[in-house]
Amino acid sequence: MRKLLLIFALIFLFTQSVYALEEISSPDEVTLEAEQSLHDELGELGIETAPEQTEINHEKSLKEKWEDIWATEYTDLGVNNYLLTNIVTKHFSEDSIVESIHPFGGYNGSLGMEFNDNDSFQAKYGFNAINLGVDGKFRGGKSDFRVLFTHSPLSSRNLLRNSFSDIYIGTNKIKNHRIQVGYQRPASGIEGKMSSFQLPFVYRSQISRTFGTVRKAGARVIGNYSLFDYDIGGYSSDTYFKSFFPGAEFAGWINIKPLGKTNGKYGNLKIGSGIQSGRRDTDYTVSGFYIGYDYKKFMANFEWANANGYNGRSGHTSNKHASGFYTTLGYMITPKVQVLARYDELDSDKKTSNNSNREYSFGLNYFIKGQGLKLMLNYIFCQNDSAKDSHRLILGTQILL
After folding, report:
1. For the segment 63-109, what is each residue's pLDDT rounded down to a tens digit?
2. What's the pLDDT tens digit per position in 100-152?
């Protein structure tokens, strides 16, 4: 009789549990109290049950998040990995137009020593980039914005002209395309438009720091396909908020990727060309060409530029015809250690003879946590036609938070 009652009790509990599951939309909605009640009732009937494994959402402590950061290996050196992303990112409720914001900061500085052939010596601490900004995503994740401030204490520009860097809104709603509108860095060559935190050496090449790496207000379309990509935009020719609209500028660059369909089996080859042309009191045009190849641990590139007047970081000029190029070789000794060599030449005024500057650079990069925490050691031999030759030894540090 007792066994019969036990069988009826089990059948009753089973059918009631199934009925309860049919009343809800998901098995995950069964409450822990119901599971505990079933466990207790079976226990009263003398039936032992194994302890139920329930998954409980656990909010990691700050210490655990720090431990995750130091345990993570950052192998993609082509992105700026901010170390505190998972700690400082703020997510908003579904009724907010903004989905999330990510405050971030970046520092890239260097201590340099320069020795001239006339036995003079100079030590200088330099700031390549000190950034503080916010990246935000709008609801849906396909549109975003950035507000970035840069502090350059050694600059002669005033606070307004010196502080604002990126201020733009972007969208990825069109497949393989991105549209950005606002204050941003145009496509002025490959290294000229590169982030300061992505540079292989502490400083940019001579053509990049002369013709490019300056922000301008405008709109651009960036397309990316397996066999080619492009960056085309129209901008105001103003730089550093010096005037409202002194003229218009066009900047466009296209790259062909012949090995784009091979999934990196034979490496990655990129061949590109572009032009930057506009008017600021007078006309100016800068044209360029680039070829780059990387395969496993090895990389090599070459970039050339020719300017009939220019409107870059070193200022606007219409009466100088300049040209230059650089070529770089790099090899990853280990996943964290990279060695580099570069030859860099610039003729800042082709109308003037004996006016070329040549830089022979050797670099050592140690990626402690990818680009998020990095040490750089550069040696540069500067050979100048119109000045004394010099030697520079630079120790650089970089941290992204």
Report:
1. 777 788 888 889 899 999 999 998 999 999 999 999 999 999 999 98
2. 999 999 999 898 888 887 677 777 777 777 899 999 999 998 999 999 998 77
Q: For every residue of the chain, which 3-state class applies, written as one string? A: CHHHHHHHHHHHHHHHHHHHHHCCCCHHHCCHHHHHHHHHHHHHCCCCCCCCCCCCCCCCCHHHHHHHHHHCCCCCCCCCCCCCHHHHCEECCCCCCEEEEEEEEEEEEEEEEEEECCCCEEEEEEEEEEEEEEEEEECCCCEEEEEEEECCCCCCCCHHHHHEEEEEEEECCCCCEEEEEEEECCCCCCCCCCCHHHCCCCCCCHHHHHHCCCCEEEEEEEEECCCEEEEEEEEECCCCCCCCCCCEEEEEEEEECCCCCCCCCCCEEEEEEEEEEEEECEEEEEEEEEEEEEECCEEEEEEEEEEEEEEECCEEEEEEEEEEEEEEEEEECCCCEEEEEEEEEEECCCCCCCCEEEEEEEEEEEEEEEECEEEEEEEEEEEECCCCCEEEEEEEEEEEC
pTM above 0.85, yes or no: no
pLDDT at 29 > cutoff 60: no
